[in-house]
Design goal:
With 115 residues, this protein is mainly alpha-helical. It contains 5 helices and no strands. It has helices spanning 2-7, 12-22, 26-41, 44-56, 60-114.
């Protein structure tokens, strides 16, 4: 993630931090994507119980169904989580932007007066 962030001129530390935080949570997100997809595409209990057997002994038709379910769940979860995180970050920035800016300006003025 850090290498990819460097290539596209993004924040390398932010890319590395995101990678470190979310890599261990991948199995949880994978499961949530499947559960969300099954919520929209099928019988939740029966299909979800048969999913593990289908993943261990796959055939092409089963993999196509699992792919459809997983992709649907991933898109829906990304939209929901992205919206929640956007609102949360927006509220935090709006609340703390002016106090942080005033503090930085006052520190900068003190450094200029001392020099």
């Amino acid at each position: 993630a850090g290498f990819a962030a460097g290539i596209v001129l993004a924040s390398v530390p932010a890319g590395l931090l995101g990678d470190i935080i979310f890599k261990p949570l991948f199995p949880l997100f994978f499961y949530l994507d499947l559960v969300t997809g099954y919520f929209f595409w099928g019988n939740r209990t029966q299909d979800l119980n048969n999913l593990w057997h289908a993943l261990l002994y796959p055939d092409l038709a089963t993999l196509a169904v699992i792919g459809k379910v997983f992709l649907t769940g991933a898109v829906i979860n990304s939209l929901v989580l992205g919206t929640i995180l956007y609102i949360l970050i927006y509220v935090i920035v709006e609340r703390y932007r002016l106090p942080v800016l005033k503090r930085l300006v006052s520190k900068n003025r003190r450094k200029q007066n001392c020099a």
